[in-house]
Amino acid sequence: MPKQAPPATKTCFALLMALGGLCIALPAHAQWKWRDADGHVQFSDRPPPASVPDKDILQQPSQSTRVVVQNLNDARAAAASAASAAAAAASSANAAKADADKKAKEKKEADDAQRKKDEERARQAAIKADTCSRAQNQLRLIDEGTRIVTTNAQGERIYLDDAQRQSERQHAQDLIGSNCQ
């Protein structure tokens, strides 16, 4: 058979439990009771809204509890104010970031357009240089007296006569004049 605790221990334990229950019930003592705009009675551990007139407050906690609750409400209001200020600052930062992103995008587009223009100029310069080189080679061949062969519309090979050579020489000089500068 198990040993039973002495009666004094049981009493002490019951007393401690009762004391613990009272400690838990203390916050419940700080209750507010008021009548709302519709005439319904409301209960809360927080004070009624500011829109409730003093005459409709039916029960309120003691003055010390009210000060603690008021300080708690003030702290909550200060925290809410700080949070709204932080949100405004974040919003301002987001707007500044969006503006910076827009400017960066516009700069990138302008840089891309300039790069494309530069590439087109370089491509045109390369074409002119190639045309110049070919025209100079053609003129050198004509001036050396090398026989020049071309094909006609029927695909037959024909040699250039003196008039055609002079015409080709003039054409090569024109190309050199417009592309070799």
Please describe what this structure looks like.
The protein is mostly helical and 181 residues long. It has a domain at 118-181. Helices cover 68% and strands 9% of the residues. It has helices at 7-29, 63-144, 162-179; strands at 32-35, 41-44, 57-59, 149-151, 157-159. The strands form two sheets. Strands 2-1-3 form a three-stranded antiparallel beta sheet, with no helix packed on it. Strands 4-5 form a two-stranded antiparallel sheet. The radius of gyration is 50 Å and the shape is rod-shaped. The mean pLDDT is 82.
List keywords for this structure.
mainly alpha, two-stranded antiparallel ribbon, 181 residues, 68% helix, three-stranded antiparallel beta sheet
The number of distinct helices, counting runs of at least 4 residues, comes to 3
**Molecular shape:** rod-shaped
Low-confidence stretches: none
How do the strands line up in the largest sheet? 2-1-3
Strand count, sense and barrel status of the largest sheet are:
3 strands, antiparallel
The helix-and-strand class reads mainly alpha
